[in-house]
Each structure stands twice: as C-alpha cells, then as structure tokens.
Amino acid sequence: MEALHRANSLYMHDEFAEAVELYEQAINTEKSFEGLIGLSSALLKTGQYKRAEEAASAAIEINPDNFIGFFRRAQSLFFQQQLQLALQDFEAAEKLNVNAAGIWIRKCKVEISNLVLPPGRDPYTWYQSDSHVFIVLNVKARSSEETKIEIAENSLEASVINTNSAEFTVHINLARPVVKEESSYKILPTKIEISLKKRENSNWIDLEPQKIAEVRPSYPSSNKFKRDWNKIDKELDQELKKTKPEGDEALNELFKQIYENGDEDTRRAMIKSFQTSGGTVLSTNWGEVRSKDYEGKDRPDPPKGQEWKKWGS
Question: Which PANTHER family match (predicted)?
C-alpha cells in the first residue's frame, strides 16, 4: 500500500514517469483496481497509450461496474486513433456515470466524421459544451516551434507548417467573445485541438457571426433564404394606398400572406408591433421593433377621435 500512496503523490505532483514505476511495484504486490487505474492514467500522461489500454482493461476485469475503467481505456484507444472502439467505451462509461464522457463522445463522433470526408475537407471542425467551444484544425503540424496559435476575445488565428512543409493558415471571427486567459490548445499527431472558454455559458448557434449585408435589404435573420424587405415594405405601402375602406378583407389577406411567408423575425416584429401598439403599428422590421417600447416611450398617437385606455377600463 505504501508504494501505491507514493505513486499517487507523484502523480498529483505531475511526476508521471516516476509514478509509473511505483504503480507497477504496487500492482506486483497486490493487483488492485485503484493501482491499475493509477497506472493507466500515468501511462496516458507519458504517451504510452497501448500499455495504458492494457492496464485499464485489467481494471475493468476487476470491477466492470466502475465507469473510470472504461473511460481510461477509451482515452487510450482514442489517442491510438481506434475511434470506433473508443466511442463504445466512452458510451459505456456514460451509461455507468451520466455526464462522465459527454464531451469525449462528441469528440469521437467529430473525428469519425472527419475520416469519411473526401479530399479537400474543411480545414477545421468544431463542437461545444456548456462552457467551452472546441475547434479541431485538420492539419499535421511538423513541430510546435512552427505552430502559431493566437487566441483573441473575438477571433482565432492559426499558422502551421505541416509535415509536407506547406503552410496551413486559418482565421476565424468568433460569433461570441471568449476568455483568452482560460483558453488553450494541444498539438496532437494528426490534428490541433483548441479549447476556447466561453465568456458566457450559452449555446452557440454558429461558430462565426452571420454576415449582414451593408445595404438595408436583409434584416438579421436565422433564415438562410434572403428577402428584400425594402421591396416588401414598398409593396405594402402601395397596397395600403390602393385599398379603400371597404377593402379591409383584401388588406387582411395581404397581412396574412406576409405573416405566413415571413421568417421568425418577421412574425415576431408583426406580433409585437401590432399588439403592443394597440393595433396602430404593424411592422415587419424586427431590427427596429425589438428595441421599441410601444406601451411606453415609443407609444404612437391614437387614431383621430380615439384615446388610449387600459384593457378592461
């Protein structure tokens, strides 16, 4: 037991090579689950992935109900690029302990999907957790000295000399800010993994900000189909001018068509402007409407001959 305690202490102080020797001594004296897991962990830290896999497998034989055995074996398989087997073990660990391997499962799936990409695949892929965004650069770096990764609050820049002596460069404008001081990267044999700490723990819809045209036509929208809202507004004005008092039905039909054919932002704009203005404003421009307070400072004048009243008064 003394050798095991000393090995644990060495591991906690990042003296992994020395810890491996003492874990092996402890296991030779008594083959325990704790000793095998410690050995597997230390071997992972020293890059001895095959031996780490063997130690974790021996630990699973002793206690198949403890998730950590599957987790350590999965990690060793992952670093050996045995991704399907690693995914199976990560999923086994997750079943035994919920949330134990969620990020690793996503990493495996990203790597597996990369394997089936045709030549000319994307230079990077990304995934996320609640607190971090992970970017995988699909490049084999020749050396750490020839790899430059610059992380800023709203951007990421990479310049890498690959194993073919070619320069790999990428610049990413980030959709949301990150904490530079709590972000990092790792250079692995087949890729570079970048971990970005989110400034706010929220889900990112996109890695990069959506590009908004400088001219007015398209308001910010998650809909990929672009509409010319200037044209729609002009058509609406023309219809309003043509519509006579007895043409309310035609006007309502027009509003209905715009609502049904509009995207989420258009509908939100129409609902908020109409309901909060007491029916005196109807706009399709969510970029303008979302900041308006039609019940307060931006309240429009009531139609001639009418006055504002609270509902039910």
Answer: PROTEIN SGT1 HOMOLOG
Kindly report the pTM of this predicted structure: 0.43
Question: Which of 85, 60, 56 is CA-nearest to residue 73?
Answer: 56
How far apart CA 307 and CA 278 sit, in angstroms, is: 11
Q: Provide the CA 304 distance to its chain's centre, in angstroms.
A: 52
Question: What is the three-class DSSP state of 29?
Answer: helix
Stretches where the chain sits below pLDDT 50 are: 116-118, 212-227, 240, 242-247, 311-313
φ/ψ bin of 75: left (φ > 0), alpha (ψ from -120 to 50), beta (otherwise): alpha
Q: Which residues contact 99 (CB under 8 A, 6 or more apart)?
A: none
76: CATH: 1.25.40.10
pLDDT at 303: 55
Residue 271 lies in a domain: yes
Domain that holds residue 152: 119-198
Q: Is 57 helix (H, G, I), strand (E, B) or coil?
A: helix
SS percent in the chain: helix, strand, coil, step 5: 45, 15, 40
User: Residues, the chain, total?
Assistant: 313
